[in-house]
Amino acid sequence: MLTDILKSALSETGIKAYPRSIMRVIGALKQTGDFWEIVDISDEPLPLVAYILKKFIEKGIVRAKDNELVLTEDLEGEEFHVHRCIECDGRGVVIDDFRKEFETFMELQKNRPPAIRDYDQGYVTHLTTFSRIAVADQKGDLRGKDVIILGDDDLVSIALGLTNLAKRIVVLEIDSRLIDFIKKVSNEYGLDIEAVVYDLQKPIKEDYVSSFDTFFTDPPETIDAFRAFIGRGLVTLRSPRCAGYFGLTRRESSLDKWIKLQEILITEFRVVITDILHNFNVYVNWDYDMRAFELSPVDSKPKTNWYRSSLYRIETLEGFKGYNDEITGDIYVDAESSTT
Amino acid sequence: MLTDILKSALSETGIKAYPRSIMRVIGALKQTGDFWEIVDISDEPLPLVAYILKKFIEKGIVRAKDNELVLTEDLEGEEFHVHRCIECDGRGVVIDDFRKEFETFMELQKNRPPAIRDYDQGYVTHLTTFSRIAVADQKGDLRGKDVIILGDDDLVSIALGLTNLAKRIVVLEIDSRLIDFIKKVSNEYGLDIEAVVYDLQKPIKEDYVSSFDTFFTDPPETIDAFRAFIGRGLVTLRSPRCAGYFGLTRRESSLDKWIKLQEILITEFRVVITDILHNFNVYVNWDYDMRAFELSPVDSKPKTNWYRSSLYRIETLEGFKGYNDEITGDIYVDAESSTT
User: Which of A84, A96, A140 faces B78 most closely, judged by CB atoms?
Assistant: First the structure.
């Protein structure tokens, strides 16, 4: 009965739907009527979830009432049961050793510039930011190391600066509001962060090439943007066995896209994936209008945090390479995008 | 001064040493004098760690006293600081929902057959076994699903049977002692596990091909054995978007081997890696003599759990394939092996 959705999804949305995609949306519908939570629970790309729900509504399987989605038939769906550790919210790390720095961060970030649509911004919870530091420290990627952050709406540079672990911290970021804020905080707290307004569409300048041990970035999730951002991160690393950290969602990237990205990492860049931590990065809901609102089958704004991403850690090996070509044209939107 | 170790390691051990390998061994030496803990902390392959330490002893940088290894100079090493969540031991999941089943498991496993060298056995802690169930349940891979376990010295089948989540549980295992034990428990507790003595060197029989939603296995860590075991797991799966779980260590697999294995997954099998959870699997120390004892630069047996592996979760996509050729010859040992 639902096979027509499988067939039409690809041509209508550009995203392949699997029977399991539908089963997961049904399973999520059994737990919540909130569109954003259904996207979150099902872990299928938002435009695909929106399409499946729209088809369900057309077929009368789902009724939209007061912007809540209700399943009208008892269909078989995937069952989800959460066993996430409450103590660490499933991340596996705690930030106890950085409690003081965390409190300071909480206070000073109140004056941060808000996320804006121009640069595809949107930032993670403070706990996420510090948990990243905890993971990277546990891996030996921070203490005494030279660290670069490519795009920093999450203010990783400030969190890292407050902990005083790294030898050097450099931020390249296109948004001068953020750079000004980071500089101001850095001066005020003596964090010694080098913050530079930088358009990452341009190649990485010689000054930053092969100069760092560890990079953090959060790439837009098209194939081309991923290659460019991770590729630039790799260009900044000085040798084999250096580390890179970045996020990748299921919200805007299907598993079919994931495998393409993994293939780029492994066969093109020759870096190994050492960790993939599901739902590690939790985003604070942001204000600006975005494609997701147009796609939503109901007129509701997110009430809970629903936008999450997996934290990837990669490590360079002998013969690794990056990507430093200039980027031209719009490489930030594909069929699976929804937050631009 | 240590560049000669970098040069000789590959020819002497067959494993590439990076400067960071040495830095990590030095960092670990600053935390402990126990050989097994140094392997654990450094996360470098055991034979390489043993080689580096032997060279250090020759150079007088390390002294072995009462089977404890002591750094005699203040060398720069990587710094490790643990931020692991105590509540979930860094796994991100808790087993609270399975507490009763866990207690039962603890009790009944007391009569399990001990691990023997013949089949490269060695099993994980009970908490590890149940944490695997928790992760897989959270992913929607168990409830109402058909699950196969290829090799089961960890008794995943029994743990899963006790929770009563799966629709069908099949175990293929070469060790008739284990099969007898699983059958006995299954009868006694009404778990309905199909346990079959099976040599996984032989191809998977038609009965089990394309018949399952989820597999668990724990492959020996040579390239050929990995391809064969994971490949057979994939052969049992019925469609795209099915899941597989397996462990991969750093103890017996360098990151250079990891990338080869990841390349097999992605380019040869066309499955996507959705999760890599570091040190998720913790092994109980086992009794039999193994190569690791010969390699150890000191004459000490492990006092704490030191053998861990990452939990991988993979998902099949359109066009995935497995590997079902018969295996001949010894494919279980390579330069990085130490527990056979």
Answer: A140
